[in-house]
Amino acid sequence: MEVMHMADLLIDIVDVHKRYKVEKGPSVNALNGVSLSIKRNEFVCVVGPSGCGKTTLLNIIAGLESYDSGSVTMHGQPIIGPGPERGVIFQQYALFPWMTVEKNIEYGLKFIRKRDADGNEVRFTAEEKRELAHHYIKMVNLSGFENSYPKALSGGMKQRVAIARAYALNPEVLLMDEPFGALDAQTRAQLQEDLLRTWEKEKKTVFFITHDVDEAVLLASKVVIMSARPGQIKEIVDIDLPYPRTQATKMDETFMRYKNYIWDTVYKMYLEIPK
Ligand code: ADP
Ligand code: MG
Asked: Could you give the C-alpha distances from 16 to 48, 184, 216, in angstroms and in order?
């Protein structure tokens, strides 16, 4: 068994319970004793039937949702609200329609500080913000669209802007909730590759929710399978496939074995859900 060094532990979720109060009718038991350790530089994908609590778990890590009991810590400190060290990317791009691509990416930089040569906390200058925005626009292959407005962009391009915006804040962990779910297959494949290249290079920690078992196995170093009603972790599968990975990885026999195994486990749960 692998020994986890404390220094590698980034986010620790211990026995988290979450119920949603509903005005009429019984409360919804969304998470029922979820424990999960996320290590630095891990690429964690979460799969499971709709309604099993994936988004709830992500929102709790993001600090956007409360929970009833258990603990959620990052670097050993309780997560009590959103923070720039946790970048969130939703399925719907959530861009400001009245701002250009560049301004959308610069926006979050207003709220964060960096350290200058003397160790003082200072804001980014306008020039630095522009440079950072351009750097990340280039990274997501949107050079030339700096001054475009969101309405002029395709779904895939908007999602690239959302990714660039999250990256520009240089978070330690990216929290992504079905970020490619609304995109066509080709754009999705392209963004998967982009994300892989960036992760391989920058070694961020990623917590990524998806419906798509194919996508999970392609991206993840670890797949978390959740079960529904009440939401619990059913199984955790380490994906022992080397990086760099590309769409061609899907032809690999080991890939297919993981995919079939996970798909089987998820599908069996669908059959078990009382109709
Ligand atoms: P998933 O993302 O896996 O589809 P969610 O975390 O969105 O699951 O939801 C888990 C369960 O909690 C579902 O049964 C859902 O209907 C319920 N739920 C989510 N948000 C709320 C809310 N704000 N109020 C009441 N019930 C909710
Ligand atoms: Mg969801």
From this structure: 17, 35, 23
Q: Tell me the pLDDT of the chain averaged across its residues.
A: 91
**Any ligand 1 atom below 6 A from CB of 84:** no
- The rounded distance, in Å, linking the Cα atoms of 134 and 100 is 12
The more confident residue out of 112 and 59 is 59
Q: What is the pTM of this model?
A: 0.90
Cα separation of 245 and 198, whole Å?
12
Ligand 1 atom showing the smallest separation from residue 50 Cα: 4
Residue 30 Cβ contacting ligand 1 at under 6 Å: yes
**36-50 pLDDT, tens per residue?**
999 999 999 999 998
Rounded to whole angstroms, the Cα distance separating 28 from 210 reads 22
- Angle made by CA atoms 90, 96, 115, in degrees to the nearest 5: 80
For residue 64, which ligand has an atom nearest its CA? 1
**Greatest CA separation for the chain:** 63
Q: Is the shortest distance between the CB of 51 and ligand 1 below 6 Å?
A: yes
In angstroms, the Cα distances linking 120 to 7, 84, 117, 127 are 26, 18, 7, 19
